[in-house]
Design goal:
With about 600 residues, this protein is α+β, with helices and mostly antiparallel strands. Among the domains are: about 5-155, Orthogonal Bundle (Butyryl-Coa Dehydrogenase, subunit A, domain 1); about 160-280, Butyryl-CoA Dehydrogenase, subunit A, domain 2 (Beta Barrel), CATH 2.40.110; about 455-585. The chain is about 55% helix and about 10% strand. It contains 19 helices and 14 strands. Helix 13 (about 460-475) packs across helix 16 and helix 14 (about 480-505) runs antiparallel to helix 16.
């Protein structure tokens, strides 16, 4: 159950599809050449493959445990996290003024994929910390940044996100946790659930980002404020001091990611946990969206990562499992199942899904770099619109694919896939949370159709559609048969997506329910076409490199095969999804509640 980071494909996706060279004029990327990127990925791959990945199965069996109020992580977790921190890996994309390396998110995203593939449960800790750092960098006071960011950027302290309560899940406005002013701080009382790494034994402090309501706050989401609530209050010298009034009530017993402690947190059993207001009162949900958007991109990357890990395991099994004679062969001798067409189809479906989703996620990450660091304000705005458009697609489409690919991985193993010892089932169980947390995929679909499309009347989508059409046209004119087929399928997909986009925009004035019933199908359509764009763009570049005799010919030829397979087996779904995205609401809403 080993893991080998697909560094060659990662670099190709980053350099060719995401066009990393666009960052050359951006701070943090100047002087970052391809050799340096390769060295970063190689070193990260060693930690992921040699240190973290071997802990994954044992962590699943052991889990995290609550022992007399103390959360104990799985064996090896603390040592692996220390190696992660000592290597400076948590610091990659963050500001140098707080101890970060200031590298582009495009590079950090490729590195983060390795942690996620090695172990989703392990990587969730730095994932949430990164989101908390983003939030504090954007909204905290200078004093708060000075107190918390250096230790969090280094990874010496970790961060959490505290939104959900028993009665307030997706409806965050229903939360009841209270914050009462006490001088220049607040006293926090209430309970939060589903808090990832709400406590653990890997670091000396945990810094909680907590949403709460002040006594005179307006109702609903308009009355939510955001507070920093450390596990240990910080002394003037920056070291952890007195234990705050918070505790772990219990750990959730989950379907997967067993080694990640998912905590029920109690704040204020005594006088109230001490919290510090971030920004202004009643703007907490607005601030928290900074962290949530960061986490949504990261969770989409988790879908890519689990797809890659499941594919690698299924491929190894298929190459070694000998069963049945080969179809059409004269010999009756059994062969490895990789020789059987249906198994090969499944493996290629897994491989191409991971490749396509990776390229789209990396594209979003490079766009994020440009949105944050481009010297031209107009360009930053333009790139931010692209980021906003892609984030719900990356989060939802990639995580749906992660579940689907992990399920195919179980199928490749046959009956052995249903047996825990092979490890295929763990990937499936771990993947299943991804479409749920950080905003369910239904919420992502609604975000896409109601906010990201409607706010500019589809202008950002139209720009992307034009780029997709251009790539489809270039591929259709190629002398390479695989490219012509990929170009034709991409053109069909672009037309389907353009038609669905126009229809949904037109229906915005006819009522939200009519738009909502097609939102999930529209998002999948968007994802498949974006993936087709990435795969066809990759194949065009591979074809040019082959013609020039530049690069690894075997790898480049495989890119052409992958693009055609993706076009035939994934992208060909686009026309049907257009119908689902634009269907009337009669079938969805016709039955009474008790008839559904």
């Amino acid at each position: 159950m080993s893991y080998a980071p697909p560094i060659q494909d990662m670099r190709f996706a980053l350099e060719v599809v995401a066009e990393f060279d666009r960052l050359r004029a951006v701070a943090g990327a100047d002087g970052l050449d391809r050799d340096t990127i390769g060295q970063i990925l190689e070193e990260a791959g060693k930690l992921a493959g040699d240190v973290i990945a071997p802990l994954n199965a044992g962590g699943d069996r052991h889990g995290a445990r609550l022992d007399n109020g103390v959360v104990r992580t799985a064996p090896g977790w603390r040592e692996a996290y220390r190696a992660f921190v000592d290597g400076g890996w948590n610091t990659l994309p963050f500001e140098p003024e707080h101890g970060g390396q200031g590298l582009p998110w495009g590079v950090a995203t490729a590195v983060h994929e390795m942690w996620e593939s090695a172990s989703l449960a392990f990587a969730l800790c730095p994932l949430l910390t990164a989101g908390a750092i983003d939030l504090l960098q954007a909204h905290a006071s200078p004093a708060q940044k000075a107190t918390y960011l250096p230790k969090m950027v280094s990874g010496v302290w970790t961060g959490t996100m505290n939104l959900t309560e028993p009665q307030a899940g997706s409806d965050v406005g229903a939360l009841r946790t209270r914050a009462v002013r006490d001088g220049d701080r607040y006293r926090i009382t209430g309970q939060k659930i589903f808090i990832t790494y709400g406590d653990h034994d890997m670091t000396e402090n945990v810094i909680h980002m907590v949403l709460a309501r002040t006594p005179d706050a307006p109702p609903g989401s308009r009355g939510i404020s955001l507070f920093i609530v450390p596990k240990f209050l910080v002394k003037p010298d920056g070291s952890p001091g007195e234990r705050n009034d918070l505790r772990v009530v219990s750990l959730e017993h989950k379907l997967g990611i067993h080694a990640s402690p998912t905590c029920v947190m109690a704040y204020g059993d005594g006088d109230g946990a001490i919290g510090f207001l971030v920004g202004e009162e009643n703007r907490g949900l607005e601030y928290m969206f900074t962290m949530m958007n960061s986490a949504r991109l990261a969770v989409g990357l988790q879908g890519v990562a689990i797809a890659e890990r499941a594919y690698q395991q299924a491929r190894r099994f298929a190459q070694g499992r000998v069963q049945s004679r080969e179809l059409g062969a004269r010999s009756a001798a059994p062969v490895p199942i990789v020789r059987h067409p249906d198994v090969r189809r499944m493996l290629l479906a897994m491989r191409t899904a991971a490749e396509a989703a990776r390229a789209v996620a990396y594209l979003a990450a490079v766009e994020l770099d440009l949105a944050r660091r481009h010297p031209d304000p107009a360009a930053r705005t333009r790139h931010q619109l692209r980021v906003d458009l892609l984030i719900p697609v990356v989060k939802a489409w990639s995580t749906d694919l992660g579940v689907e690919v992990a399920s195919i991985g179980v199928q490749v193993h046959g009956g052995m896939g249903f047996i825990e010892e092979t490890g295929a089932a763990q990937h499936y169980r771990d993947a299943r949370i991804l479409p749920i947390y950080e905003g369910t995929n239904g919420i992502q679909a609604n975000d896409l159709v109601f906010r990201k499309l409607a706010r500019d009347d589809g202008a950002a989508a139209a720009t992307l559609l034009a780029e997709i059409a251009a790539i489809a046209g270039a591929a259709a004119e190629s002398a390479e048969p695989a490219l012509r087929i990929a170009g034709a399928r991409l053109a069909d997909g672009e037309r389907a997506l353009a038609d669905a986009t126009a229809t949904l925009l037109r229906r915005h004035g006819e009522g939200p329910r009519l738009v909502a019933v097609g939102a999930a199908a529209y998002l999948r359509l968007f994802g498949l076409v974006a993936g087709g764009f990435a795969m066809t763009k990759s194949a065009l570049a591979a074809s040019r490199a082959l013609a020039a005799g530049d690069g690894d010919a075997r790898f480049l030829r495989a890119k052409l095969v992958s693009a055609r397979f993706y076009a035939d087996h994934w992208l060909s779904q686009a026309p049907g999804l257009r119908h689902a995205a634009t269907a009337a609401d009669d079938d969805v809403l016709a039955l009474a509640d008790d008839e559904v």
